[in-house]
Amino acid sequence: MLFILARAGEPLTETATVSGALAVVGSQKKLQKMDFWVRNPDHFAYALLEAYKEQGDFGLLASAKSIADSKEPEVRRDAMLKFLYGAYEPLDTALAPLFSYGLARMVRDATTKQRMYFLLPKGLEAADRMTAEVPEAQWYSERTTLVGEFCRGKSGDELARWQYKHPTYAGARNGETIASIAHEVRQLIAEMEASCG
Amino acid sequence: MADQNRTGLQNPLPLLTVAVAEKAQVPLATVESIFEQAKVVEEASTHRSEFLTIRSLVFSGEKHAAASGDGPFAFKWSDLETGLWLVLSNDGNQIGKSTILEVMLWALRGCTRGLRPEVRAWIHHVALEFTIGLDRYCVQFSDDENTPVGTVLRTEPGPAQVLSSFTDNEQFEQAMERLMMGRFALQRIPFVSHQSDDGEQIHHTWTLYAASMFISGSHPAILGDVTTGGAWWRMLQLFIGMPYTGAQMALRSASILEDHRSERAQSSRPAPVSQQPEIERLSGRIVQLETELTRLSAAVPRPEDAPELLRSFTREAMECARLQQSLGDLEHQHAVATEEVGEAGADLRRLEDGSAAKRFFAGLNPVCCPRCAQPFSPERLESEEADGNCAVCDRHGQVDDHDALEEAIATAMERLDAAKEAEKELRKREAKLRSELTDAQAKTEALEADIRRIDESAENIHKALELRMEMERTRGAHDQLKALELDTLTSLVDEGNTEQRRVLKEAEKIAEARVKSSGAKMLAHLEDELVKVATRIGYKGLEKVAILGNKITVTVSSISSGFSGQTPGQRLRLRIALVIAMMRLAKESGRGHHPGLLFIDSPGAEEVSDNDLNAVMSEIRAVCEDTGNLQIFVSTARGTTVASAVAENRRRWPNDDGYMF
């Protein structure tokens, strides 16, 4: 969560009310969607392929292929349940240490009642230091950076529509684990490569 | 030199075949082959003249519906010898005179000439004795319903000998033909019959020769009664034995026959159409069919291998199914193991990530309550440093958590290693199994292909059968067309058979020239003798008879005319005179082929006056006596007129009932 806020958070806006905050994720939904892609590299690779089909950006295809060619879809997978609005997991426990250590802060918008998650300076400093000092943290830093770039400017609802594009995601029943699509993604990439010669 | 000329040795004639080969400029073998085919014989010997003398005649039977009255009868006339013999009546006709002569001729030639059928029906038995040279013969036969059954015997010299037996008309005729043609060395007279399409060479034989010995009626020819084909001229030549006559006749006949056949072939043959293109097409098709049949017969496996192939296929297919099942199970196990590796790795990663995060965050101090976000009191932080209890939840759990985490990581690593090992093992097994399956599938596919080929070969058997049938039809058509083509070519070669015809014509010319040159003197002698005899027997004013080919010119009182231009009496005299002349020449030269027998039926019809008739008969008797080799039977109803011409024992008068028998 720290890395999502630190690497995928967006610049503050006029509505941001926390003083000293460095970045913000504007809604819980968006935070949940980004968390899903970080924890499910196969689904993220599928989203990259869909974007590649729309935009023709080979960087997206290369990123997707890099994920598919690695063991990430299996080893980095932390499955999530599906609820009414897609992948969902209570964030309180995960966010509690960040709040307790003064690394991040959650504020409800007075008007929209949406939860907004702010990265505090100590949070960015902790993320940077972890990236530098803790090897296990490097992957998180890089992946959340990539996810942040992909999600930049998109709302939680827009991201949900992306994720619903895959039938496995869309078809998962409420309360059930959203299954892996690693095999399908690898096959899709192989077909695309074959068709490109 | 004079001796050489006399003996003819100065310019001896080469063999006819040699002369023809030289003239026609063809190999001798070709001429010999053509001569053999045409049955041309070059005489190498001369026949010594013989004469036939009837010694006795007996015939009997039973009359039915006869004017003379019904009932059995028997006629016997014996002690006959050469010379003139008369069968007489006084103005009585239809009393059996001609029958006596006709029965004689019947017995001599094996078939009747002018014997009336109702009279023949009366006659049941006939026996005729005659002599030729030193031999005495007897022809005896019974005749029932026009079917003669009898024998030809030689009764002298020595014991009687059956020469031949006969049971019908044809055999009787053949028996007499063999005897007479042999005894008188007579050659068959060839002529071409145009009855069949191809023409046919047939021969006049003894029947014709014998008929020429019977003089009766209108005298259409000087010899015999057949006017067509120059038959009289041919007989005359052969009777007097003119050299090369037989060869010339055979050559002429063969030539005519070949001309006729060639004309028929030319007119009936359609324009030849070459079958070569069709033959070539069929040949090509035969090669195609052979190639196709060879390909079909070389197909393996053969249908007989099918049972073993099917067993092998079943075995391999079952092995494939088993391997596929095993592979499916193994793939599932492998997938599970791979998943286990992933999950184990994920677990380990989570633990390691968690441990690292825990260590990192342990270095941080909480600043507020995660629940209410209110800052902690300094005492809680101090307490944590002092006794290690958590400033947030006041638990002493960091050490415990660390140990538990380390243990969990170790367990997770073991799990991951075990999962990897298991997955590796399963991967190896899967690869092995997949290889086995690939091999089994390859075998199965090979067997399946073999079975498919057998299926195809089953079709091939049917196809091969059809091809073989087509092959038979094609070969048949091919062979027939080739034969047809060959026939066409042969026909074309036949056209080239003009070569054969050319040789025949050359040969005929040479033979004809030899006949003329060698026979001219004989013929001239005959003509002279003919004039003498004819004059003696009452042909007044006759100056010359010229026989030129098959034409006779008679000069009377310096006026020349043909045979048909003579009066019946003149023609009769010429006919009688010719036979007498021949026999006189035969006696003189010792050679000739005429039997010296003559039957003259009713000569009085052509004679106006009794004196003339008597004179004729008297002269005939005298000539016969002079010649000594002639036997002449004359029947006439003017008995009183001619009776004195011969002695009484040479006359045969009717019985008391007015009939000869």
Our Rg estimate of chain A from Cα atoms comes to 17 Å
Summarize the helix and strand pattern of chain A as letters.
Answer: HEHHHHEEHEEHHHHH
**Count the strands of chain A?**
5
Number of helices of chain A: 11
Q: What is the CA-CA span between the terminal residues of chain B?
A: 66 Å
Give a written overview of the molecule:
- The complex is a heterodimer of chains A (197) and B (661).
- Chain A has 197 residues and is mainly alpha-helical.
- Chain A has one domain (2-196).
- Chain A is 59% helix and 10% strand.
- Chain A has helices spanning 2-8, 28-39, 41-55, 58-69, 72-75, 92-100, 121-133, 135-151, 156-164, 167-171, 182-195, and strands spanning 23-25, 81-83, 86-88, 104-108, 115-119.
- In chain A, the strands form two sheets. A three-stranded antiparallel sheet of chain A has the order 1-5-4. Chain A has a two-stranded antiparallel sheet with strand order 2-3.
- The model of chain A has no long low-confidence stretch (mean pLDDT 89).
- With 661 residues, chain B is of the alpha/beta class.
- In chain B, α2 (16-24) packs across α3 (28-38) and α9 (245-268) crosses α14.
- In chain B, β12 and β13 form a beta hairpin.
- Chain B has 17 helices and 16 strands.
- Helix content of chain B is 56%, strand content 16%.
- The longest helix of chain B is centred in the C-terminal third of the chain and has 98 residues, at 398-495.
- The interface between A and B is medium-sized, with 23 and 26 residues.
What's the short version?
The complex is a heterodimer of chains A (197) and B (661). Chain A is mainly alpha-helical and 197 residues long. Chain A contains eleven helices and five strands; from the N terminus they run αβααααββαββααααα.
